[in-house]
Amino acid sequence: MKIQMLSAVLGLSVLTSHANVVITEYVEGGSSNKAIEISNLGSADVDLAAGGYKLDLFANGKTESTNGILLQGLLTPGSSIVVYNNGATDAFKFDAPLGMSDASATYFNGDDALVLSNADGVIDSFGQLGTDPGSNWGDGDFATKDHTLRRKVSITQGDVTTDDAFDPSTEWSTFAKDTADGLGCTGEVACDGSQPLPTAGTLIVDSTTPVDEICTNCPDITKIADRATYVQASYYANANAAEANALRAAITTDISAVHKQLSYSEVWTALTYTDEDPANSDNIILLYSGRSIAKKDNGSGSASSNQDFWNREHTWAKSHGFPETSQLGYTDIHHLRPTDVSINSDRGNRDFDIGGTSNVEAPANMSTADTWEPRDEVKGDVARMMFYMDVRYDAGTETTMPDLILVDSVGTATSTLSDGTGELGKLCTLFDWHSQDPVDTLETNRNHSIYEYQGNRNPFIDHPEWVDSLYASACGGADGGDANEAPTVSAGDEQSVASAANVTLTATATDSDGSIASYDWTQTSGKTATITNADSASATFVTPKVGKDESLVFMVTVTDDLGKTSTASVTINVAAEVINTESSGGTFYFLIAGLTLLSVRRFKI
Fold it and tell me: pTM above 0.70?
């Protein structure tokens, strides 16, 4: 039964004979210091890529792989490869072919199982598949959390029974947390430099299904919502009904009701949809540089050090509250954006603020020792992502997350869940950026895409005026409110029209302490219509033909002369197109009758 279950999980045939390749070292250290050493204990060379060797992670007792990496390199007898987390410190990193940088299978904790397999089946395992032991297997010095474990030299074959009880003390020697001096060689002692080394072997793209994937290590993801059926009024039902003093809590309730937790590998795939270049569907647009780059050029696995590729930027730095992949915020794609590998490294975990020195690669971005200033075109995007994180992860909303707090200072400290809070700055700079760079079509479309794959929305994109409601008192005028009043705007009355009808959208706006600088109409739900004169108070469109009654929702964003914005929405109800079958039937009858009469006259003798 154990073999049948594992075959179903991995889609592999579990064999009793297998190549003599096993896991010989396991490192579960601090933060991202995670590594797995895999060694050839046999007498013949083993080409990992040609043999279909793969390392799979099974997190938190799951029986389906949550992450995996195809292995590459030619293991000569006695040689090893080290698969290390790309966020690990330098002591755990090795150049290829000895080392493989990884952003998937090495995101494990002490309670996660690992399975090593090849084209013939399972050849080794670590932990107990299908069981969550809590924080770790084993006790004391043999706990799989916060320790380095090395396979005893007496063990020369892997554990192919993946769901049997796992006791680390039977096959493993244990060492202190973050011990790395034994990586790269077999045995229970530190490496002395005399060990055999692997060679390159067959090189492949190290992903789980390289032919079908849109990018490296990018598994398929499925939609859980449909933007066409999104209705703003019902989605924000609690917030729309809330009094001012209860608005924040109501927003948190609305955006937390449905939130699918993605794996970190699934984030790769999600970003290829959320940040797609509208001018080239094979590309995405990078946040800080604005560069359009091929989706396939992601920095996963062996490509993680390619400075010209793209990777996953935590705009709310993960070291400020959620450094572990199991924490919900770690894979929340509302704040994860594709960026250049090199620029992601340049930003680090700095707070957001103005000033500093221009970035060499992307000069529109500035930085100091403590701060990062993104280019003007995305300042508002960054601000609204930070406001989302601040409200989504309020105290007590998620057991895996601390209370995330925007503070009006820089130089904020790193933190973990046990600290209780995670801080990032600078609040009032972000407040200003929100007004300076209003919501645009790209940001709106991104919010829709996230809604489809993760299930929740950024409320400050849908309702930019809520930024004032929640943060103006901290960043406004001397009276505790914002010195610049937001404009007031109406999008007009709800309309009911037919398919293929010409519709005019009319906004009326006033500004008590200035003037209206711009209008911007966008469609937020329903079958897509093309808006004409979207940048004026009166815009027009032709309703699409629909097979059933459908509601289209349009939002107008009004900006005043000092950059303050307000929004309003209007619903256009489109009736289904009616086909008059009786009329068409009559026409058909008269057509046949006419043809018959013509035929009679033509052939009359």
Answer: no
Q: 97 preceded by cis ω (within 30°)?
A: yes
CA distances from 11 to 6, 145, 170, 221, 490 (A): 8, 29, 29, 19, 57
Nearest to 411 by CA among 390, 433, 426, 432: 426
Contact indicator for 457, 255 with CB cutoff of 8 Å: yes
**Is 216 within 8 Å of 300 (Cβ atoms)?**
yes
Rounded Cα gap, residues 569 and 491, in angstroms: 6
pLDDT in tens, 110-130: 999 999 998 888 999 999 999
Rounded Cα distance, 314 and 319, in Å: 9
Domains identified in the chain and CATH numbers: 21-175 (2.60.40.1260), 230-474 (no CATH), 488-575 (2.60.40.10)
Q: Give the number of other CB atoms < 10 A from CB of residue 502.
A: 9
Between 127-136, 373-382, 579-588, the lowest mean confidence (pLDDT) is in 579-588
Give the number of other CB atoms < 10 A from CB of residue 64: 10
Q: What is the phi-psi region of residue 75: left when phi exceeds 0, alpha when psi lies from -120 to 50, beta otherwise? A: beta
Tokens for 245, please give them. Answer: 């003093």
At 173 the three-state DSSP class reads strand
Q: Strand 508-510 and strand 488-490: pairing? A: antiparallel
